[in-house]
Amino acid sequence: MRTTSKIWPTRAPHRSYHLQRVVQYVSRWHHHDDWELFLPTGCPGRALIGDHAERFHAGQLYVVPAYMPHMFYRLDHPTTGRRAAGWVLNFVPFMLEAHASELTGLSRFVVRARRGLLYTGQVVEQVSQYMDQMQNRQGIDGWATVLLILDRLVKSRSVPALAGAEYVSQHTRAGSQRVDTICRYIHDHFTQNIRLNDLAELLRTSEESV
Fold first, then answer.
1. CA–CA separation, 196 vs 180, rounded Å?
2. Rounded Cα distance, 168 and 187, in Å
3. Are residues 159 and 192 in the same domain?
4. Is 206 helix (H, G, I), strand (E, B) or coil?
5. Which residue has the higher pLDDT, 138 or 206?
6. If we measure between CA atoms, which residue out of 25, 33, 37 comes closest to residue 9?
7. Where is 201: in which H helix or E strand?
8. pTM of the predicted protein model
9. CA-based nearest residue to 120, from 71, 66, 157
10. CB 3.0–4.6 Å: which of 36, 126, 182, 190 could bond 64 by disulfide?
11. Smallest Cα–Cα separation from 63: which of 150, 148, 128?
12. Whole-angstrom Cα distance, residue 121 to residue 76?
């Protein structure tokens, strides 16, 4: 299995969401504890989400749940001169985990999105407009726009899932954190001889289980 590294959220500490207009795609296999919406507007590329791989282009919107390994990288097209560009919205999932009756639709959305989702068509245009408006909004106004985006996604039907059901059932938050621990240890000790029993002791398991 390909290893994945954790990328810490780009949002400021104590902020619940962060919107950025990107000029390059993240070409590193990674995961994070935020949810992510990726809306490409520039040159095409290739998306890897869990065990799913496909070509992406402008006019699509990807929903990546927390802890799902993913990567988006560009496909160069020198004849067109188009550059990588798009929107990335990261947000903490506390609203998605609420149990208020008004948020029942969001609870169902969380279940649907466990494998990642791909949106196309008019909903992507509307979300793009919301993201453009968010640039000048802060605080509650900003979060209200996040909720408007989620509401639009919740109401869209027949949205294809991405990662396979078996992959998701085997991929857990604990597994991601376990890989994080190993990656951090190797990063901190890469100039030294790293022994298997050191990793086993770090993970509090047997060498055969590392």
1. 16
2. 27
3. no
4. coil
5. 138
6. 33
7. helix 196-203
8. 0.76
9. 157
10. 36
11. 150
12. 24
Q: Where are the beta strands (DSSP E) in the chain?
A: 5-6, 17-22, 30-31, 35-40, 45-49, 52-56, 60-64, 70-74, 86-91, 117-120
Pairing of strands 30-31, 5-6: parallel
In order of 34, 118, 191, 198, 204, the CA distances from 201 in angstroms are 29, 41, 19, 5, 5
- Final residue belonging to a domain, choices 126, 142, 163: 163
No. of H helices and E strands in the chain? 6, 10
Q: How is residue 97 annotated by DSSP?
A: G
Q: Does the pLDDT at position 168 exceed 70?
A: yes
Task: For residues 25 and 77, give the distance between their C-alpha atoms in angstroms, rounded to a whole number.
Answer: 15
Domain that holds residue 155: 5-163
Q: Are residues 53 and 80 in the same domain?
A: yes
Residue 115 token pair: 């494998």
pLDDT value, residue 184: 63
For the chain, how many structural domains are there in total? 2
E-assigned strands of 68-196? 70-74, 86-91, 117-120
pLDDT at 2: 47
Q: What is the CATH number of the domain that holds 132?
A: 2.60.120.10
203 by Cβ neighbours in 10 Å (0-12 / 13-18 / 19+) ranks as middle
The alpha carbon of residue 106 and the mean position of all alpha carbons in its chain are separated, in whole angstroms, by 17
